[in-house]
Amino acid sequence: MELGKRKADKDKLVISEIPYTMVGAGINKFLMDVADLVEGKKLTDVVDISNQSNKDGIRIVLELRKDADVERIRNILYKKTKLEDTFGVNMLAIANGRPETLDLKGILKNYLDFQYENATRKYQTLLEKELEKKEIREGLIKACDIIDLIIAVLRGSKNLKDAKNCLITGDISNINFRVKGFEEDAKKLCFTEKQAGAILEMRLYKLIGLEILQLEKEYKETLAKIAEYEKILSSRKNMDAVIKKDLDNIKAEYSTPRRTLIEDGREAVFVEDAVAISEVAFVMDRFGYCKVLDKNTYERNKETIETENPYVVNCFNTDKICIFTNTGNLYQVKLLDIPGGKLRDKGTPIDNLSKFDGTREEIVYLCHAQGLKGRKLLFSTRQALVKLVPGEEFETNNRAVAATKLQDEDGVISVQLVEGQTDVVLQTSAGVFLRFQTDEIPEMKKNARGVRGIKLAPGEELETVYLLGEDPVIHYKEKEVHLNRLKIGKRDGKGSKVRL
Asked: From CA 261, how far away is CA 388, in angstroms rounded?
């Protein structure tokens, strides 16, 4: 990739990209990423973006303001878009008949072992063929030296079988020699089966002097090849040299010029401008539209804001908003990613800023991430499972994680911050109340289900959880219930029903 610049007019500079194949996503995704950076005020010096790509290659032009820092913009593009990308490789391979995940050394070792095994089989096969040729040519050369005896045997045989049997074993019982004197020599014949077959198939023109010389020459070549193959198979060092030579031949025949450049490139360095830390108020209405207000706006209209919006969180602009849902999930969104607004602005749907889906989930608790440090959260579910979880369990950079583990058909009904309350009251759908001390709830990890807080009757569910504060009075079915007057019991008890 190469970026250059040229004069466009007095007020603009142009960064252009020479034709090259972009890694990862397509051109449209890259253009959208650049547009997002411009809208997010990360690329404030970009005036216009144009796609001038054609069949000859990719060309994307960014028009800049005068005196723009081209090097900084280049680094931002490398860091924030798919102009430069990394990807993982799953090094899963079949090694020795078993699937294994190998490192680079393991991949190379198995490849070399495979090449060695193939080369061994190849030269073992070639050696066997040359040994067979050696055997046949030795038989033919020997037959040429006693060709008169061979002809006598053939003329005295009744069929091919008798002639072949005589050549192999020296059996002359079925041979009727027309010229006497060959019997004793025929009994000494001991050709192999392959040699006998080659002799019987040999044509008479092979007896010409030049043909005999050619046969002897081929025999010597065969001996030379046998010696070469045996040398290759005798040591790993010789085999390595042959494998290198074969690979060089393949490279010379099939290689094509590399289209990419491998180099130890300089890393693109981009340091984001430090964000000025300030106090803000996160505000979200009951429809899920949220916005960030500055501290002064919030202080001037505090009563109105808190009356109209069920979720108001005071924090710093560098913090994150944590959303706990009834499905046991935790969603996080950076306050810097939430558009700021004025008091009467509608805001942006929280669904568009995070992975939270308001169509299938409900928010049970919303807070800022810094407010969880050093504190504990009380989780309660419909099936009356309760637990205390340290706030540090939810320190993560992921936008979505599981906040708790749920049983089938269970759901979170309450997530509350424990701030020194000593007692907790569980209320079921049947109007049963159970009060016990908070210390009886064990502290667990976020991936634990919890322990049973109250025994439920068939079809009964946990409905509400109260942490006793200064005014523990509630209204249940139009009747006041003083929670601090309830008898203190034990966790996992049956509780008592309030008289109406």
From this structure: 55
Closest CA relative to residue 199, chosen from 164, 165, 170: 164
Cβ distance 30 to 60 under 8 Å? yes
Candidates 86, 85, 84, 87; CA nearest to 74 is: 84
Let me know the angle formed at the C-alpha of 83 by 27 and 68, rounded to the nearest 5 degrees.
Answer: 105
More confident position, 310 or 256 = 310
| pTM of structure | 0.54
| Cα 173 to Cα 166: distance, rounded to the nearest angstrom | 9
Neighbours of 367 (CB within 10 A): 23
- Between 81 and 380, where is the model more confident? 380
Rounded distance between C-alpha atoms, residue 343 and residue 319, angstroms: 21
Backbone angles phi, psi at 33, to 5 degrees: -65, -40
Q: CA 163 to CA 170: how far, in whole Å?
A: 10
* Mean pLDDT of all residues in 94-123: 90
Counts of helices then strands in the chain (DSSP H, E): 12, 24
Per-residue pLDDT tens digits for 298-312: 999 999 999 999 999
Helix (H) or strand (E) holding 251: helix 236-254
> 169 with 182: CB under 8 angstroms?
no
The span from the CA of 147 to the CA of 124, in Å, is 34
Structure tokens at 499: 């008289």
Q: Measuring CA to CA, which residue among 359, 249, 235, 345 is closest to residue 297?
A: 345
Contact predicate 191/163, CB 8 Å = no
CA distance 95 to 112: 12
Question: Radius of gyration over alpha carbons of the chain, in Å?
Answer: 45
Determine the Cα–Cα distance for residues 475 and 130; give it in Å rounded to an integer.
Answer: 102
Please calculate the CA angle 356-415-309 and round it to the nearest 5 degrees: 60
